[in-house]
TrEMBL record, chain A:
SUPFAM superfamilies per the UniProt record, alphabetical: SNF-like (SSF161070)
InterPro entries: Na/ntran_symport, Neutral_aa_SLC6, SNS_sf
Residues engaged in binding Na(+) 2: 49
Main location: membrane
Source organism of the structure: Oncorhynchus tshawytscha (Chinook salmon)
Record membrane topology: Multi-pass membrane protein
GO CC annotation, single: plasma membrane
The protein's name: Transporter
Transmembrane segments: 43-60, 66-90, 111-143, 195-214, 226-247, 267-292, 304-325, 415-436, 457-482, 488-511, 532-552, 581-606
Keywords recorded for this protein, A-Z: Glycoprotein, Membrane, Metal-binding, Sodium, Symport, Transmembrane, Transmembrane helix, Transport
A GO molecular-function descriptor: symporter activity
Cellular compartment(s): Membrane
TrEMBL record, chain B:
Gene designation: LOC112251097
Entry keywords, A to Z: Cell membrane, Glycoprotein, Membrane, Phosphoprotein, Signal, Transmembrane, Transmembrane helix
Subcellular location: Cell membrane
Signal peptide stretch: 1-36
UniProt protein name: Collectrin-like domain-containing protein
Coiled coil feature spans: none
């Protein structure tokens, strides 16, 4: 179908190398061949590891919980098929064909859209900052899981050993360990607090581990992903088996698989954003990974495989998570009832263990009938299993508060805690590979690396720089800053970048040329489904999601939840508005990464209009009349 | 003891006085329990309530709480008082129990060994119980939680504070392994590069000769690609 020709914009297009692939590999100035994957499995595992991250474990189950599992899966799968898979295929294809990182690729497609690559790199840089801090927190909990008893299972004593620390008693030991012992969080954002040395130590460990995996580029990454990409599945299976045998698991799973009518339109927005952020498109990492591939690789199969495995992992992970949440709700319910039983037994001097969880209702009714005033004086708590099941949490709250509490009640808690945090660490580490790759490969392509500097040193410098910048998250107020980065950098910029990516390939590069490239790589032209998605459905969906997301964000007041022990309603978190200077930073974080898109376009336009002065080092402008034989002769001493 | 008093008083003061003393003594015997009842009552100012949860502590192995167990409790409390005060010899009779319920819970007061009408103040009883709490618990196979003295809070167990926090040990192991790995990989990269450079200088001459040969009639495919003959209609400059 030649629909593409009418739709392609009439901007002068940059030329693309069409010659045999071998010479495109060589970087002419340094004569280093482009790195290659050892085998297809390493490439696939790396892409899967990048896509499957901590969000699959702690965001997807939460969304299932608040919308009802069955109700959420439908928009989720629709978004996967019509938005996720086309974007994934597109990124893998252009990376494989053009064999460059994100900046090089977008410059090649259209120099006016070179800003998309720069935006990808900046966003990957910002995400690497806070994502590895989360990995550092996971490491901290992992290190602390090797103790008996677990440090978050009991409150510590106060100074003179007369009682427990008040903050811990008022909230829970798990909350206290997270907010005080781990974060040492300040009551609000204005107070920055000091650097928490234990956090700095954990962060240094996290960055060291990332560095050692990146030392030799994809050679070491390829080895590392054999472990980091597969280990989470092993742990999830172990947890699945364990969780299904726990009491209360059944109630938790029922809760997950409830079917509700899709009443809430918000569910479509959340499904679309979840699939989008889950697949890690628009980071530039996937483009980089596929650029190390052989050109004659079937990237269509790869894209479908990665997308389907990512979603399947989310669904598979939510089963043990929900079983364990059900177990936790059951445990809380039983301990709530036991508290009431003890109060009744002590007050009415009933024989020990006469009132049990089973006959509590009858005893309560009879006692309330005979002595209602005494019973009401006892201030018994209302224990409802549904209320405990409704307590949902996502993100760090799920991992570090809810799950750690559940683990305490499981027999052999150290083992389960260690397994869980190693799994989270593997998930985070394999995603970090993609994040950092999205930063390093464009920098290599931009030829910003001095020739004398070996790759190892350059990677070390970047890792050190990121570590030093991430020290801001080790302050007392670090968690608040991380939430800001997560909400403002890790959301809207990606949607904008992805939108421009798909417009660039579908309309500026042209579907016809893209189909030719795909035919060259995979052996067949893309079928009508892909074409329709790239041309119409995916850009439309992305645009609608972007507008809806921004609209929803604009309506929610910019507030954050602060942990303040002096708050009146402690242990509830205090909802505070962002200070003005912080809000300005939020706006900057959202806009600065994407500002490069129009800036580069304007810059190129000015350059183009002011004359044929394209000194584009990235362009690799092939002079059709340069015969390389003479170049070599001149170079000989 | 009663018989000694009886015979002693008879012998000492003659039959008439003896009869008087005997009547007085009988009255005391009748009145003593009543007096003891007055001393020990619910919410007694110098008494403590004890609460025992046998089934919670022992489950299937729970023993029955009967009069023998009550006597054992009296003996244990007497022991605790003796251990604390050391000079005074407390006896089972000095521990008075009352208000027993099926919970199991009861009140007790402690009388002085010298004067059975005088109660030992609450604070002293508390000190004695605190001192021997562990022994009292073990006597009944119970714990601080299942043998409660309402009003006497158990001292909290001192936390086990190892000199090096365990997490530092794990961290040390991990960071040591990572550092060793980094150094090993860097050294091996360096060695590889040195080896490659040595190899390059040896056959560098051969490579240049090969490249000069070029393409002849397109048969020798090892030559360089001459872009002068590409179809460059598709290339448009910016």
């Amino acid at each position: 179908m030649q629909l593409c020709c009418f739709l392609s914009l009439s901007l002068p297009r940059a030329g693309l190398k069409q010659g045999p692939s071998e010479h495109i590999d060589n970087d002419h100035e340094t004569s280093l061949p482009r790195p290659k994957w050892n085998n297809k499995a390493e490439y696939l595992l790396t892409c899967i590891g990048f896509a499957v991250g901590v969000g699959n474990v702690w965001r997807f189950p939460y969304l299932c919980q608040i919308y009802g599992g069955g109700a959420f899966l439908i928009p989720y799968l629709i978004a996967l098929v019509f938005q996720g898979l086309p974007l994934l295929y597109l990124e893998l294809a252009i990376g494989q064909r053009l064999r460059m990182g994100s900046i090089g690729v977008w410059n090649s497609i259209s120099p006016y859209l070179g800003g998309v690559g720069v935006a990808s790199m900046v966003v990957s840089f910002c995400v690497s900052l806070f994502y590895n801090t989360i990995v550092a927190w996971v490491l901290w909990y992992l290190f602390n899981s090797f103790q008996e008893p677990l440090p978050w299972s009991q409150c510590p004593l106060n100074h003179n050993n007369t009682g427990y620390v008040e903050e811990c008693v008022e909230s829970t030991p798990v909350n206290y360990f997270w907010y005080r012992k781990t974060l040492n969080i300040t009551p609000n954002m204005e107070t920055s607090g000091s650097l928490q040395w234990w956090m700095v130590v954990s962060l240094a460990t996290a960055w060291s581990i990332v560095y050692i995996c990146f030392i030799r580029g994809i050679e070491t990454i390829g080895k590392a992903v054999y472990v980091t990409a597969t280990f989470p599945y092993l742990v999830l299976t172990i947890f699945l088996v364990r969780a299904l045998t726990l009491p209360g698991a059944y109630e938790g799973l029922i809760y997950l698989f409830t079917w509700e009518i899709l009443k809430n339109p918000q569910v479509w927005l959340d499904a679309a954003t979840q699939i989008f952020f889950s697949l890690s498109v628009a980071f530039g990492g996937l483009i980089s990974f596929s650029s190390y591939n052989n050109q004659k690789n079937n990237c269509e199969k790869d894209a479908v495989l990665v997308g389907v495995i990512n979603s399947a992992t989310s669904i598979y992970a939510s089963i043990p998570i929900f079983a364990i949440l059900g177990f936790k709700a059951h445990t809380n319910y039983v301990s709530c009832l036991n508290g009431n039983i003890l109060a009744l037994t002590n007050d009415f001097d009933i024989s020990d263990m006469n009132i049990t969880v089973e006959n509590y209702e009858q005893w309560f009714d009879s006692l309330n009938g005979t002595h209602p005033s005494r019973v009401s004086d006892l201030n018994l708590k209302t224990c409802d299993l549904q209320t405990f099941l409704d307590q949902s949490a996502s993100g760090t709250g799920l991992a570090f508060i809810v799950f750690t509490e559940a683990v305490i009640s499981m027999p052999g808690s150290q083992v389960w805690a260690v397994l869980f945090f190693i799994m989270l660490f593997s998930l985070g580490l394999s995603s970090m590979f993609g994040n950092l790759e999205g930063v390093l490969t464009p920098l290599h392509d931009l030829k910003l690396v001095p020739k004398w500097m070996p790759n190892e040193l350059f990677t070390a410098i970047i890792c050190l720089l990121l570590f030093l910048m991430a020290l801001i998250f080790c302050l007392g107020s670090g968690n608040y800053w991380l939430e800001i980065f997560n909400s403002y950098v890790g959301s809207v910029p990606f949607l904008i970048i992805a939108f421009f990516e798909i417009i660039a390939v579908a309309y500026i590069y042209g579907i016809g040329r893209f189909s030719d490239d795909l035919e060259f790589m995979t052996g067949h032209r893309p079928n009508i489904f892909w074409k329709v998605c790239w041309l119409v459905i995916s850009p439309l969906m992305l645009f609608v999601v972007l507008v809806a997301y921004v609209a929803v964000q604009a309506q929610t007041p910019p507030t954050y939840a602060a942990w303040n022990p002096d708050y009146v309603n402690f242990p509830d978190t205090e909802v505070l508005p962002y200070p003005d200077w912080v809000f300005a930073i939020c706006v900057l974080l959202s806009s600065v990464p994407v500002i490069s898109i129009p800036l580069v376009a304007i810059y190129r336009l000015i350059c183009c209009m002011s004359g044929r002065h394209s000194k584009d080092s990235l362009h690799n402008d092939p002079n059709p009349y340069a015969n390389e034989d003479y170049v070599v002769e001149r170079a000989r001493p | 003891m009663i018989s000694y008093v009886f015979w002693g008083s008879l012998a000492l003061s003659g039959i008439k006085e003896g009869m008087l003393v005997w009547i007085l003594f009988l009255l005391c015997q009748v009145g003593a329990p009543a007096l003891a009842q007055d001393l020990c009552q619910r919410d007694a100012p110098n008494g403590y309530k004890v609460r025992i949860s046998l089934k919670t502590a022992l489950g299937e192995d729970a023993y029955e709480w009967n009069q023998s167990e009550m006597f054992f409790f009296q003996a244990t409390m007497a022991f605790a008082m003796r251990r604390h005060f050391q000079m005074e010899t407390y006896n089972v009779d000095n521990i008075i129990l009352c208000v027993q319920t099926s919970r199991v819970s009861f009140w007790f007061v402690v009388t002085s060994p010298d004067n059975t009408t005088m109660l030992i103040p609450k604070a002293d009883v508390e000190k004695a119980v605190r001192m021997s709490r562990h022994r009292i618990n073990n006597a009944f196979l119970l714990s601080d939680r299942t043998l409660e003295f309402l009003g006497i809070y158990p001292t909290l167990a001192a936390p086990v504070n190892p000199d090096t926090p365990p997490w530092l040990i794990v961290f040390g192991v991990v960071i040591g392994a990572v550092c060793v790995g980094i150094i090993a990989l860097l050294i091996s990269s360096l060695l590889q590069k040195r080896r490659k450079e040595k190899g390059m200088t040896e056959d560098g001459q051969d490579e240049e000769d090969m490249q000069v040969k070029g393409v002849e009639n397109g048969i020798n495919l090892d030559g360089t690609y001459n872009r002068g003959f590409t179809d460059d209609d598709r290339f448009t400059k910016l």
